[in-house]
Amino acid sequence: MIKLEEPKARASMADGSKPQMTRPLAPAPQKGLLWPKLLLALLLIAALGGAFWFFRGRAAQSNAAAQQANAGARGTPVVVATARQGDMSLYLVGLGAVDPFYTVSLHTRVDGQIMKVEFQEGQLVKKFDPLIEIDPRPYEAALLQAQGQLDKDHAELINAKLNVQRDTEAGTAISAQQLSTDTATEQQTEGAIKVDQAAIDSAQLNVEYSHITSPIDGRIGLRLVDEGNIVHATDTNAMAVITQLQPIALLFSLPEDDIPRVMKSMKQNPKLPVQAYDRDSKTLLASGTLLTIDNEVNPASGTFACKAEFDNKDGNLFPSQFVNARLLVDTLHNAVIVPAAGVQQGPDSTFVYVVQPDDTVQLRTVTVTQLAGNEILVATGNQTTTGEQACVQTGLAPGEVIVTDGVDKLIQGSKVQISKSPGGTRGGSATAPAAGWSQNTNGAAGQEANSDADQTGAAGGARHHHRPTSGPADQGADQSSGDDNRGR
């Protein structure tokens, strides 16, 4: 501490007054000592907070690494399907429209008032079913008049024949001129009888025309006239329209490049199968046969028309309905069939992931049947959506198991865990459990031995898709590359 001493009093002042005592000085405050302590406290708090979040982040990373290690040990969840051997049907697809064989517009052939409408709108009618009745009384009266005239002329004919007979029997007593006159009268009466018969037939037709019946079997449309309306034979508007539904035709078009293939198939089978699907190509509406193809190509569109016939027993085809037609032109026998979702397309090759008995996957290069834009392959006897199945030509044997869902998370040698969800695969095949396919893969041991060279080539092609990795910890980096492959 600094010791402060009191100053000594002066002996005297110049003016002789008593000297005054000065007050002791207070110690000066020490400035700048509070801020270093506050700064030190803040630094200590920041250090403690940083240490807390550092150790917490390390713990979270350790937990994530442990979870990833556990996931790697269990394997990547995937859905699989077993390749099978069967026949694949090759179809040509074209857009078409349903066209009835017969369409009838009902018009009246006589004038008169409509007395009765005997059908319901949309009714299925048979041939000769009564539909509309027009007032027949004027035509029935004309028929009676014609019949009466016929009876009169018949009586005159009888008299004329008797006159000719008497003239003949009289011999020279009757002049030749009288005989000629009586003979001409007989012939004239016979002609009148023919005219009367024609008038009767005409009147009878008018009576029949006043009762309008259905000329075909089909479905009648909306009613265009009502009871009490006056109709005329010269009217341009129809009273109703009837279309034949069974059988029914389908007109569709195919590219002109398919003419040789269709002609060749028609020589082998004159009745090629044709299937009609809905607008989304998901629902089979009806099955029929090809009747014929047109005799020329449409120069404006570069297509040719085909006409098919369907019995349409279920009534699924409707006139003027747009449908997708499939024409069967070829069948691939003993093909290896897999869901199309399991076939991956890379920039250099086409490959699949084959599941091995040890629950690891092998990247396998395959060759699949290439199709044109209007061609599809469907397993024979299985009506599925377009593009759900693929035909593998080389690189895969029947009985081998491939991954169909979860491919984007796999690389060569990845361990997988097969999903047993009841939904099955995206390709429509049933999900194969882990214990259900082990014996099938043993049968493909020879194929597995031959696939070592394929694996080397496939791995080279897959370098564009997946980076080599040493363990499950790098799966996250490979997933983005796998997503790119799935997008392509």
Radius of gyration: 51 Å
Strand content: 25-35%
Supply the number of helical segments: 7
Highest-level CATH class of the largest domain: Mainly Beta
Strand elements, count: 22
Fold-level CATH name of the largest domain: conserved putative lor/sdh protein from methanococcus maripaludis s2 fold
Largest sheet: 6 strands, antiparallel, barrel
What's the helix-strand series? HEEEEEEHHEEEEEHEEEEEEEEEEEHHH
- What is the first-to-last residue Cα distance? 86 Å
Q: Which whole number gives the mean pLDDT?
A: 79
The CATH architecture of the largest domain would be Beta Barrel
The order of strands across the largest sheet is 2-11-14-13-12-15
Question: In words, what does this structure look like?
Answer:
The protein is α+β, with helices and mostly antiparallel strands and 488 residues long. α2 runs antiparallel to α3 (176-209). It has a six-stranded antiparallel barrel with strand order 2-11-14-13-12-15. β16 and β17 (350-355) form a beta hairpin. The two termini are 86 Å apart. The protein has four domains: 77-88 and 335-373 and 381-487, conserved putative lor/sdh protein from methanococcus maripaludis s2 fold (Beta Barrel); 93-101 and 242-328, Elongation Factor Tu (Ef-tu), domain 3, CATH 2.40.30; 107-134 and 211-235, Beta Barrel (OB fold (Dihydrolipoamide Acetyltransferase, E2P)); 136-209, Helix Hairpins (Orthogonal Bundle). It is elongated and about 170 Å long. The longest helix has 41 residues, at 34-74. Helices cover 32% and strands 28% of the residues. Mean pLDDT is 79; it is low at 1-14 and 421-488.
